Amino acid sequence: MTKWYEEKDLDKQTVISSRIRLARNLKKYPFSAAISEEKSKQLIEEVKNAIKNERTFLSEMFEYTELNNLSYEDKTAMLENHIISADLINKKSPCAALIQNDESVSILLNEEDHLRIQSICAGYNIDKAWQNADKIDDLIEESVEYAFDKNYGYLTACPTNTGTGLRASFMLHLPMLEKTGRIRSISQSLSKFGMTMRGLYGEGSEPLGSIYQISNQITLGKSEEEIIDSLKNLTAQIIEQEKSITEQYKKYHKLEFEDMIFRSYGILKNCKLISSKEAMQLLSDVRLGINSDVLKTSPKANIYNIMMNIQSGNLQKRCGKTLNESERDIQRAQYLNDVI
Fold it and tell me: Mean pLDDT, to the nearest integer, of 16-26?
C-alpha cells in the first residue's frame, strides 16, 4: 500500500502535509504521569479492544505495536515518519501504537495523554484529515468514557490542550522565506493569532530542509472548525508570500537562483559522503527547483520522501544494521546518487 508521503505530486506543492491530532484521556484512569505500570497495561488493553472491536471498520484498519519491544532505530524511524513523538522513543512505561497500513492514521496509547489520535493527509487536505480523526474519535468513544468537563471540554495532561484537545497543523516548505530572513517575522507574528511555528518534528525541533510546521496553540474557547479555519486563512497568506518572493527572485536574480539549484542537484548526484543536515539543505534547493519549474527532473521518489529516507533511523533500518556516523554518511550519499 502506498504511504501518504509517497505521493508523486508532492514536489509541486508548498504544503507537504495536513495533520489533525486529538488528545484524549479515559475518565477511569489517572493521567499518564501518575498511572502505575499495571494500570497502564489495563488502559492499553481496554483501548486496543475498543478499537479492534469487530463491530466497527476500525478492526481491519490498524496494526497493533507494543513500542517497548522495538529497537531504538525502529522507533527513531517511526519518529522520522511522523508516526510517534520524540517522547515515546525513550519511554520505559508501557506504551503502544495502532497504525494504519498507509501510516495516514495512528493512535498512540499512554503517551503524554492516554490517547493521541493522529490523521495525516498529503498536501493541502486539512478538512479530510479532520473528518478522519473525528470519525475515529467518535467510534472509540462509543466503547470508552473520556475525561470531559462541561465547562472546560476534554481534560488533558497538559492544560494547553484542554478544551477541544485538537492540534491542527500544516507542514510547509518555505525555502525563499527562510533564505531572505522573512521567516523570523512571520514566526513572531503568528502568536498574535493563537498560532505557532515549529520545526520538522514539532515542538522543540529545528526546521531542517526549510520545512516548518504551523499549528494552533489555543484549544480552549473555540470550536474545532474555528481553529481549522483560522489556520487555513493564515497558511494561505504564508503560501502566497512564499510564491511571491520566489517569482521575484527568479525574475531579478535568475542566474543566481538557477546556479544554486543546479549546484545542489550536482552535489547530491555525485557526492561520496554527506551529512544529514547538508543533504536536507541541498534537497530543499532541488525541491525548490522542481516546484518553480527550473529543474526538469523526475527523482525516483518525491523529495520529502527522500528527506525521510536519509534520516538515521530509516537509513539504518533500510541497511538492516546499526551504522556509525561515517558509515551513515556513506550510505546516505549512495542512496542519494541513485534516487536523485
Answer: 98
Query: How far is Cα 82 from Cα 103, in angstroms, rounded to an integer?
Result: 9
Inter-axis angle of helices 254-270 and 224-252, to 10 degrees? 100
Same domain, 60 and 142: yes
Higher pLDDT, 62 or 253: 253
- 212 with 233, same domain: the answer is yes
Residue 234 to residue 214: CA distance in whole angstroms: 9
Task: Note whether 326 and 220 are same-domain residues.
Answer: no
Q: Which of 157, 117, 165, 154 is nearest to 30 (CA)?
A: 157
Torsion of CA 65, 67, 69, 71, to 10 degrees: 120
Task: List 21's β-bridge partners, or say none.
Answer: 118, 167
Percent of the chain with pLDDT over 70: 98
Residue type at position 172: L
Closest CA to 211 of 263, 276, 280, 125: 280
What pLDDT sits at residue 54?
Answer: 55
Contacts of residue 242, defined as CB under 8 A and 6 or more positions apart, other chains included, come to 14, 172, 174, 175, 176, 177
Neighbours of 207 (CB within 10 A): 20
Name residue 120's beta-bridge partners: 19
Distance in angstroms between the alpha carbons of the first and the last residue of the chain: 23
Q: Is residue 248 part of a domain?
A: no
Residues 80 and 38 occupy one common structural domain: yes
Amino acid letter, residue 77: A
- Would you tell me the crossing angle of helices 312-319 and 325-339 to the nearest 10 degrees? 80
Please state, as a whole number, how many other Cβ atoms lie within 10 Å of the Cβ of residue 253. 12
308 and 222 fall within a common domain: no
